Amino acid sequence: MPLYDPDSGLLVVSGKVISHCLSDAPTRGVAMVPKLALDIGVCEVLRVMQLTENFIIPISYHVPRKVRSTRALPSSPAGTVGPADEWWAGANKQVLAVPCTVPLTLGPHSHSRFYTDTFSTSPKSQDWFHSPGCSLLFTIGAESDSSAAPSRSPSSTSGLSSGFLPSPSQGCSYSPSCPAGPSSKFRHIQGTVLHRDTHITNLRGMSLTTPGECDGFCANGQRMAVPLAISGGQIAVLELSQPGKLPDTALPTIQNSVNVADFCWDPFDSSKLVVAGDDAKIRMWKIPEGGLVETLTEPACILQGHTEKIYSIKFHPHASGLLASSSYDMTVRLWDLENGVEVKKLHGHQDQIFGMAWSPNGKLLATVCKDGKVRLYDPRKSAEPIQEGPGPEGHRGGRIVWVCDGQYLLVSGFDCRSERQLYLFSATSLASGAVASAPADVAPSTLIPFYDPDTSLAILTGKGDTRVYIFEITPEVPHFIECSSFHASEPHKGLCFLPKTQCNVRDVEVARAVRLGKTTIEPVAFKVPRVRKEFFQDDVFPDTAVWWEPALSAAAWLSGSDGQHRKISLRPTDMTLVSEAPKEAPVRKYLPSSVYLEEKTDEQKKEELLSAMVAKLGNREDPLPQELFEGVDEEEWVRSRSFIHMHET
Fold it and tell me: Looking at the keywords, is DNA damage present (predicted)?
């Protein structure tokens, strides 16, 4: 398909099965943009729109010039010369040439690098992008003016890209002053494995067959729980304060007598571990002070009520002793651990429940299901969902977490092609579908999300992955802002985050996790590079909620009360807020050019030139080398001549 530009003489040739360097997908068609739409300020001489299966990609051709050149940007034909009847009558006129002096754009999103969406022929779902002064018309299927959005960057490889696919109801637009889109102050976040002295090594016999709904292992501020591949559903409990090499002998464990389906620590009591088994029972274990010294065989409490195997369990974020569990019987049940009884049973699911999450205020419970639905419950008011909407299309797994102060739901799952995806749903309108989504790589494991409400960072990884993805989630478009990723040297079995009090704020550490490897458990610190580390970075460390203390009891919550966690500052007493720090005077890295290029007279320049030449040639008053040679004495010269004469005779 040839495209010829008569002004510049450029010929662009494209084939329908050829992949351009900006896209991995084959080309479906190409079109040339009118000259009046070019950005002449950067000497753009040609722009071609490449159509692929899912994208419209603008490809711009620039001539590198320091100033605008009339040769590179000649006048371009524009307008009409008369009605068609004049041509039929034999008249021939030329179109007037218009100078390219005013840059025009194709619309409010002309600065976006990619246009991504599904095409629609419905007049109600079309945005019309018209270039002034020409008859070229673009149609992009979306229901709002912000349908243009960035997609995979040209340099991206497998993995999460820096863009997202907008939904039919909402998309992303970028301002002309920021063509690449908004950036995050956490974009350069760095993940660092701490010193080997903090590692736990020689961990043997880990279980690799935990269900997909289980995180693989869990940790709190004091200890970790790791399932072992030993009959009886045994779990090892390790103390964070006791790093080093584990003994070769067997470790004291918790014996559940059945295979482990899921387990988690009580957020308000670091000594309570709750374990769900294949026998549809939930067991609560009490870890003695100082850690396990012998194997435990009798749980402190057993909860029964489910009729099938349990999927997952989640503690309430505010009420102590309140637990939610999901099961193969397609119900979600709430338990009062203090009394050991079931208090609520939720219905409405049609298939396997992949994951569930409590809202930040503790009022609502959200679930993602294999039937392709995302549901929202108010357990104290109804056993049926109060909202329901379309979720991930794939059936391989999913996770859900609340973000942006409970305004949105972040769901990780799979699309219809079994590719990992991130979806963002509005908590007030699940029926309208995802407001934004981020494409991901192809991998069998589900991305497990962790969300930090203080920084709005979503940190995701899967079991068996080596990469940890980090996004800043914002309530405004583009919603997903990608930050630097952390790459591990070997695949990990899980990643669990510790309380915020474990972070070293002096080193601008915003999150700390423990990473479960093949035979080791190693701490990982996520730090934000800052210059003035002697000050407390209050823009990165706002007051954090004390979520490890309960706000109310389970009985109070069930009776209709709500509570909120108190907040504390992480600032050490000897540090000053960076917002209150004295402003530094700008330091000039290099001396001004006037120091090197001082104005000198012609006589000074001539004298400096002659001095430099003399210094290079050397001092002319110095004697020649042969003048420095010393001669012989006269008597020695006579003896030498006599000896030569005798030798000749």
Answer: no
DSSP one-letter code for 321:
T
Q: How far is it, in rounded angstroms, from Cα 60 to Cα 10?
A: 13
- Residue 60's alpha-carbon distances to 2, 12, 520, in angstroms, are 16, 12, 50
* Residue reference for tokens 């010039």: 65
Q: Is the dihedral of CA 109, 115, 116, 120 positive or negative?
A: positive
Please count the other Cβ atoms lying within 10 Å of the Cβ belonging to residue 439. Answer: 20
Residue 400's CB: how many other CB atoms inside 10 A? 24
With a CB cutoff of 8 Å and minimum separation 6, the contacts of 487 are 466, 467, 468
What's the whole-number mean pLDDT along residues 463-477?
A: 92
What is the per-residue pLDDT across 106-144, written as a single tens digit (0 to 9) for each? 333 333 333 333 333 333 333 333 333 333 333 333 333
Residue with more model confidence, 573 or 618: 573
pLDDT in tens, 313-339: 999 999 999 999 999 999 999 999 999
Contacts of residue 109, defined as CB under 8 A and 6 or more positions apart, other chains included, come to 115, 129, 146, 147, 148, 173, 174
Residue 69: strand pairing partners: none
Give the per-residue pLDDT at 637.
Answer: 64
* Contact (Cβ atoms closer than 8 angstroms) between residue 334 and residue 340: no
Q: Which range (122-126, 304-308, 604-608) has the least confidence?
A: 122-126
Structure-block tokens of residue 407 = 């305004």
In this prediction, residue 211 carries a pLDDT of 86
Asked whether residue 573 carries a pLDDT value surpassing 80, the answer given is: yes
Taking CA atoms, 155 is separated from 22, 162, 341, 438, 461, in Å, by 8, 10, 55, 17, 22
For residue 625, give the 3-state DSSP assignment: helix
Residues 548-558, buried b or exposed e (16+ Cβ, 10 A)?
bebbbbbbbbb
Contact 282, 303 (CB under 8 A): yes
Q: What is the pLDDT of residue 444?
A: 86
CA separation for the pair 174, 166 (Å, rounded): 13
Q: In three state form, how does the secondary structure of 176-221 look?
A: CCCCCCCCCCCCCCEEEECCHHHCEECCCCECCCCCCCCCCCEECC
What pLDDT score does 97 carry?
64
- Per DSSP, 3 falls in state E
